[in-house]
Design brief:
Blueprint: H1 10-20, E1 24-29, E2 34-37, H2 39-44, H3 58-62, H4 64-80, E3 84-92, E4 98-109, E5 115-124, H5 126-140, H6 150-167, E6 170-179, H7 181-188, H8 190-207, E7 213-218, E8 221-229, H9 232-246, E9 250-252, E10 255-257, E11 260-268, H10 275-291, E12 296-298
Parallel strand pairs: 11-12
Antiparallel strand pairs: 1-2, 1-5, 3-4, 4-5, 6-8, 6-11, 7-8, 9-10
Length: about 300
């Protein structure tokens, strides 16, 4: 037979597609049971023969939590006749990793236009998702210290304000500026300065609760959000704790140094009900502390003449 005249019937075409495509392909009936499965999908689930999982539901294959969610999507497609296109899902694996996929589900209709099942096509997008997560992390965190950056700090401030309004509570914003840091750079170089900043960032995190936020604005300036404190004076105790930890000797390859911190405090809502105002108040209090050679100060508005 001439090679230009050969033909495939529908079954052969479907088999060729199911056995060789890189995506997982499957068909389900109205009860969400698998009726046909591609070899790729079977192998990914640990089965040598696709026939071994025919008749099973997602609950049986993936567990109740993930399986129940996918079955809700399946039933929606089959009850409404509306497809789901490019649904991104994350499924936790036994080793603790997350398997990210993009799935399209299309209704299958009989000759009378009645939905009798669905066709699913699932593609793994782990590399793409990891790249997305990495980019998101880089956009919201300081590269040197791994602390939240100015962008993420703004978001955390807004969250703290909404939470305080809802709970009728107060919180504190601490503006932390290192004293003597320029001397480290001048004497030991910027690599040593970077090491100091990383160790200071670690100590700041150690001095506060897990629910609090420590961020780096840039240079040797940091901001701490103390979430839901009981009274303003509590922030002074934390500020003093921070200064004690920061003041401990820092060792690195080139030598050892000690730095201290000037800390200013702004209290919500006493010193502002907006993020920018609170940050400004804490910054001004920090300069007051630096000028008066105090460890820390709560913002006090300038006296009127």
């Amino acid at each position: 037979m001439d090679s230009d005249q050969w033909q495939l019937d529908d079954t052969q075409s479907l088999n060729a597609l199911m056995d060789n495509i890189a995506d997982s392909i499957y068909f389900k009936d109205r009860k969400c049971r698998l009726k046909r499965v591609s070899r790729k999908m079977a192998l990914d689930l640990g089965y040598d023969d696709p026939a071994e999982i025919v008749g099973k539901t997602d609950r049986e294959l993936f567990g109740d939590e993930f399986g129940s969610k996918t079955m809700i999507d399946d039933l929606h497609v089959m009850e409404t006749g509306e497809p789901i296109i490019g649904l991104v899902e994350g499924r936790s694996l036994p080793d603790g990793e997350t398997n990210w996929t993009s799935t399209t589900k299309l209704p299958i209709m009989d000759s009378h236009g009645e939905v009798i099942g669905l066709l699913g096509i699932t593609r793994e997008i782990n590399e793409l998702k990891r790249a997305e997560i990495n980019l998101q992390y880089l956009a919201t965190h300081d590269i040197l210290t791994s602390l939240p950056n100015r962008y993420l700090l703004s978001d955390r401030m807004q969250q703290a304000i909404r939470r305080a309004k809802r709970m009728n509570s107060i919180f504190a914003v601490l503006y932390v500026d290192l004293d003597g840091f320029k001397n480290v750079n001048d004497r030991y170089g910027h690599d040593a300065g970077d090491e100091v900043l990383k160790q200071v960032a670690k100590r700041l995190n150690e001095a506060v609760r897990g629910s609090d936020t420590v961020a780096r604005l840039g240079g040797d300036e940091f901001v701490v959000i103390l979430d839901a404190i009981e009274k303003a004076s509590d922030s002074m105790l934390v500020a003093q704790k921070i200064n004690t930890k920061v003041s401990e000797e820092i060792r690195f390859t080139a030598g050892r140094v000690k730095v201290t911190a000037s800390i200013g405090i702004g209290i919500y809502p006493d010193h502002g009900s907006e993020a920018a105002t609170l940050l400004w108040a804490a910054d001004q209090a920090m300069y007051q502390a630096k000028r008066k050679n105090n460890v820390c100060m709560i913002f006090s508005p300038p006296k009127r003449p």
